[in-house]
Every structure is written in C-alpha cells, then in structure tokens.
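haha ok so turns out i had the wrong file open the whole time. this is the CORRECT one, sorry everyone. sequence first:
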Amino acid sequence: MSVFNPEDYWQISLKLVNQQPSDADYRTAANRAYYACHLLGCERGIIERTNSARDHSKLWEELRRRGMFWANKLEVLYRIREHADYHINSEDRDNVGCSYCKISAESMWGNAKAITEDILPRIKSMKKKDIKTPK
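then structure:
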C-alpha cells in the first residue's frame, strides 16, 4: 500500500486550472488546495485528528495559539473551500455573509492559489519533531 502525500492535492489543483478551466475546475482546485494545507497540517501532528468537522477550526486555532498568525489565511482558505463546494446554485450565491458569492470562480481560485502558495511551504517546513504541544 502506498502512502498518500497531501501535497499531491496541490499539484492536482494546478493541473485542473492549467488549460481552459471551467467553473467546476476552479472550484475543485480551490477545494484540493485547502485540503493540501489542512491534511498536511494534520499530518505534522499540530492537532490530534478526530476526523470530525471540528478538526478544521482546531487546526487554525492551535496555530494561532502558538503565535502563527498566518493561520488566519488557513481559515480564509477554508471559507473559500466552503463556498466552492456549497454555493453552487443562484439561491446559494445570494448568501448574504459570503464575500466569495460576489466574485467569479476564477477570482476565487486566484485568492485560494495565493494563500496556498504562502501557507503550504510554512506548514511543510514544520517538522513533526519540532511541534510540541504546550502543557
């Protein structure tokens, strides 16, 4: 059995938007970009995974608690992923609280890409042995 590398999701994102992407490609790319960051953070042992929805916020909250304020960008990337996955119909796009409903899928992907290019290397540089949970 092979070991899965969460960074492969990032590579898939880039491939999806490489040639004449559709809205679905941009949305899927944003989703995969988020999961590359989220799963790599979990793999680094920053939080103890419970495989529940709460793991998402636990990750950026723990990073913030440790003074890594770039974790705010991980939360933004999560919001982009939520929009890409769930705001697909015209009724959904009128979601009052969602700023991504007001921009194109291509622009949404541009935001996701910029965030991922910033935070993925930061997460990747965190070695498991360097991560210690404060008592």
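Residues 76 and 115 are 8 Å apart (CA to CA).
again sry for the mixup
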